[in-house]
Design a protein that fits this description.
The complex is a heterodimer. In chain A, strand 1 and strand 2 form a beta hairpin. The longest helix of chain A is centred in the first third of the chain and has 31 residues. Chain A is mainly alpha-helical. Chain B is an alpha/beta fold. In chain B, the strands form 2 sheets. In chain B, strands 7, 8, 9, 10, 11, 12, 13 and 14 form an 8-stranded mixed β-sheet that branches. Chain B has a 6-stranded mixed β-sheet with strand order 2-3-1-4-5-6, sandwiched between helices. The longest helix of chain B has 20 residues. Classes of the chains: A mainly alpha, B alpha/beta. Chains A and B meet through helix 1, helix 9, helix 10 and helix 11 of A and helix 2, strand 8, helix 7, helix 8 and helix 9 of B.
Chain lengths: ~300, ~400
Amino acid sequence: MTLLLEQALNGLQFGALLFVLASGLTLIFGIMGVVNLTHGSFYMVGAYCAAYALGTTGSFAIAAVAALLGAGAYGLVIELAVIRRLYQRDHLYQVLATFGLILFTNEAVTLIFGRRPPTVETPSILAGSVSLGGSLHYPVMRLAFIAVGALVALGLWWMVNRTRMGMLVRAGADDRDMVSALGVNIRRLYTGVFGLGALLCGLAGVMAAPLLAVEIGMGERVLITTFVVIVIGGVGSVRGALAGALLVGMVDSLGRAFLPQLLEGRLTPSLATPLAAGIASASIYLLMALVLIFRPLGLFPARH
Amino acid sequence: MTNTFIRGAALLAASALTSALTPAHAADPVKIGFITTLSTPAGYIGEDLRDGFMLAVKQGSGKLGGVAVELVVEDDGLKPANAKQAVDRMVQSGIRLYTGVNFSNVLAAVVPSVTAAGYTYISSNPGPSIFAGEKCDPNYFVASYQNDAFHTAGGLAANELGFKRVVALAPNYQAGRDAIAGFKRTFKGELLAEIYTKLDQSDFSVELARIRSLAPDAIYQFHPGGAGINFAKQYSNAGLGKTIPMVMPGFSMDARMLAATGTASEGFYTTGIWSVGMDSPASKKFVQDFSAAYGRLPTDYAMQAYDTAQWMASGLRAVNGDLSKADAFRTALRKADFQSLRGKFALNTNQHPIQDLYLMRIEKNARGELAPKVVKRVVADDRDSYASACKMPS
């Protein structure tokens, strides 16, 4: 029972990280219609900025600010220099350009920070584990993941539903041309949304830095899962991103946790072990296929 | 006018002829093909291989074994296809001596091109089983280790440390499955579970929860590169680092990974053929020279590449840089007449090393830095299990 609860928490904290990444991506994809493969690179830039700031100042708070500003600023630069020219183009051009930007960012980060993955120690306030009743001890760092994910969800809900920018974002997702025809400066809105997406990536980067290797290519690894999340949730919808992230986090974690034991009871070990590992690896893609069979636009599609 | 032209042409032809007929000038350096991974996250491995090799060349003032050499470096981007193209180009351009590859799958693409041309390859890092048994080749040598060595040493180390119940983890791909198979071959206790992780996995909370619930005496894990850093950090963050000891192959926690994990890796056990703190004059001098030249501590990869260069030097000296004397060069290499930084080094019939394997523990050294420290030798004169299948033609 304790184990089940712990594994559910693991699914939740993985989902929280995915949500912070996916919410920005889904807004950019849904509202601006841009397939942005550079999204993972913003996450890497955020993590590197955090590591650098932590190394020079020793303060995790400054590291967090540096990650947000670094990733946000890099996002703005990319939008102004490259993405802005691609809104009218076909998705293929966007994929090519943003893929090129992944390579560019990787090399640039290598040149600036070096190949050696920097150290990021867990801040002392988030180190160690706390008891959650009974024999369940859970790392504070991972609980903080869940809390940050929840805060981002609340903040985005407030922004999308209660602010003028949110209204424009919703309108933009519904009918881009009409919003533009009504005299809204759609370019500025796009730049703002893109910067916000990059900023959230920076947040995910600083969250992940103490637990993950800060290294070149860390963004690509998480990018595909993030796309799976927004496809399951429905492109353009923050609510969908939340549902998708939690589903993917849970299915992936619980699959890895319990499939091996489930199969080992029924099959010979030589067959069960590789089979369980294989299915667990594919579980989120199976989930995506299932969702798409019944809801081709995802769980909560933005209306079109 | 015409006369001068003809005379000029004849002169040119004659000079071209003489330069073709005279043997290579002493000044013409012997080219060495060095295909390795310099880009991608694994690029630091290629960097250390190259720098370790170059240190030996620099110390000889551009010469190995008294013969001037020139390194032709190519980045393979961790793609076997790139490496195959690069090596084919080099073979066509007449380069006869190769090393540098850092991954088994890339090596599998490179070695056949070299040996088919009758040229020589000395591996400075991987020693996959495919070239150690039936497919061994007289022109293929390994300066590092056979891939299984670290894992079988891991099993022996777990026995030595008195661990009875162990959980083994590795990524779900060939090298990961080989790692667990190698460990099982020598481990005498009970293997509670074999956990296969996803190849691109970065969060291990689920596996850590399962380890905690199984409560083993120790775990054996192999995760290369970034995944290994992630695993160590999260293991320590989950509080398991203090309660359940970890044993792993040395390349699962090399010097760079160790630096990236901060204090998380303190107290973990590793297996290997050498450590940066090894107490021998040659090894100490190497660590000192490497740090002075590049401003960082050498990894095992750098040590292996340095050894490869010294080994090549012994062969080049014997043939005075004339690699067309292939038989003499091979005979010289087979003597393995060089001082390895790891101490003892001898050659098995399949031209893979016979060497000692050590159990190490990651501890603070005199300067307060974490580094592997040799606990004890777990195997003396280890030989791989594939040599018996190798019918080496002379």
